[in-house]
Amino acid sequence: MFNKITNCAVESALKAGKILKEGFGTSFIISNKIGKNNLVTEFDKRSESIIIENIKSVFPGHVFLAEESGNTGIATSGSVLWIIDPLDGTVNFAHSLPIFSISIAAVQNKEILCGVVYHPILDELFVAEKGKGAFLNGKEIKVSNSDDLESGFLVTGFPYNVNSNPCGCIEHFVSIIQRGIPVRRLGSAALDLAYVACGRFDGFWEINLNPWDVAAGILLVQEAGGLVTQYNKEKYWLDDQTMIATNGKIHKQICDVLSRCGCGINNNPLTPFFKGEF
Ligand code: IPD
Ligand code: CA
Ligand code: CA
Description:
The chain is of the alpha+beta class and 278 residues long. The chain folds into two domains: 4-140, Fructose-1,6-Bisphosphatase, Chain A, domain 1; 149-259, D-Maltodextrin-Binding Protein, domain 2 (3-Layer(aba) Sandwich). It is 30% helix and 24% strand. Helix 1 (4-23) packs antiparallel against helix 2 (42-58) and helix 5 (189-197) runs parallel beside helix 6 (211-223).
């Protein structure tokens, strides 16, 4: 049903999921990265190695952008770039909270070809292929139908430097919760997007996301009939600073609330990864 690239993404996510499931709840090495409470465990690295190894065995000429190892491979025009978050929700994993995922996407010529998000503990596999729809464990999924932000159910997240309130993200959060709208913060942006895609949430917003947090989830939402933009309603690409992903029906309403708080500056530090060919 899916093409070779998507099947390879699925196989890689399942292999990595097995490793994370085995490691979950055991004792393992945890280190700190840049930012406050930004952790990395030995399982982030083991998961990433198995994913890259598996993809390379099928597609030796492809290139990679993976959270723990950065850019690898030599890109030429039209190269396929794999964007990988081997463990999205590391802080949850490190605290034995069973909410985390693996996120794998393939991108070519500014187009996301496929996106896979896997929650190994629940064995929930979300797969999207460009033009073919989005699926949860083989069943087609669609975004929710709700068209009123005030009765919506939303999810968000915060960057690791939230303590310095970049882009006014604390005010963004306040502007939604003060309307009495229920908001969750799960700690895995890839899952947040997958849950918008299958209608569990009506919308998601966050700033300063990394390409590996969202590449797969964006395609899931789009293929499930939803919409992904910046706060100012402009098209979102992987180096943009603000993201809103919704069922489409509440999109304008949430954009209007969040953009009123103001944030037009695109200073995502990861932008250089995406200059040029991708
Ligand atoms: C984080 C999660 C979290 C989001 C952060 C991300 P990590 O990724 O996706 O939900 O709020 O912005 O950095 O560090 O667990 O891979
Ligand atoms: Ca992540
Ligand atoms: Ca990660």
